[in-house]
Write a structure and sequence with these properties.
Two copies of one chain form a homodimer. Chain A is built from six helices and three strands, in the order αααβααββα. Chain A has 99 residues and is an alpha+beta fold. The longest helix of chain A has 14 residues, at 9-22. Chain A binds a DNA duplex (30 and 30 nucleotides) through helix 5.
Amino acid sequence: MNKNCEKYENELYDLAELFKIFGDSTRIKMLFVLCESEVCVANLAEALDMTQSAISHQLKILKQSKLVKTRREGKSIIYSIADDHVRSIIKIGMEHIEE
Amino acid sequence: MNKNCEKYENELYDLAELFKIFGDSTRIKMLFVLCESEVCVANLAEALDMTQSAISHQLKILKQSKLVKTRREGKSIIYSIADDHVRSIIKIGMEHIEE
DNA sequence: TTAACATATGAGCATTTGTTCATATGTTTG
DNA sequence: CAAACATATGAACAAATGCTCATATGTTAA
């Protein structure tokens, strides 16, 4: 029997971890908004109609996963998509949905 | 503020649901194995070193999500990838990982 | 038809996850 | 410096999730 999933055990684990990040409504909405333009925490919260705290907790997860990056601008922290793979993943997922 | 995530509310919800399926070690391993060849339940269980029951429960989820399809062959049920989007999604995820 | 095999499924349980609430940290302005 | 603003974080709790165990359903061969 095929045992490649043992061989690729670690890669597949990481892959699952990656998709897990995208597998939550709140996070995918956040990423979707960020795909269009960089946004500060408060504006993200407003866009999704959620509390600043909830958004902040999720941003932490997105940042730890290196899907977003930050920079400070005055009192605000501006979040943006870390690399184009995020857009690719969302795009290809959307293509699957739309059928 | 950008409210496109309201506009695309439903699509983004479905997208999250899709990625949620990929966001589990067991399921991604199953899909990975199935990407290479169609397999019956018992062989999948063996390949992943898991119980038949656990695999069967997950296969149900994969089937409900239309990521896999089945056909009967004697006493066995043979599972296979339902469409090539599954391979694309795994592939693009892998590309992101390997960096 | 009955025994053996292959898969499916429901209930129960432990773990994980996402939100809220309260509060801490950090920055700018007066 | 103090007050106001923006974000981060820890604890607690409810909901969702994945596995196990027992058993049901369905198929084939004797």
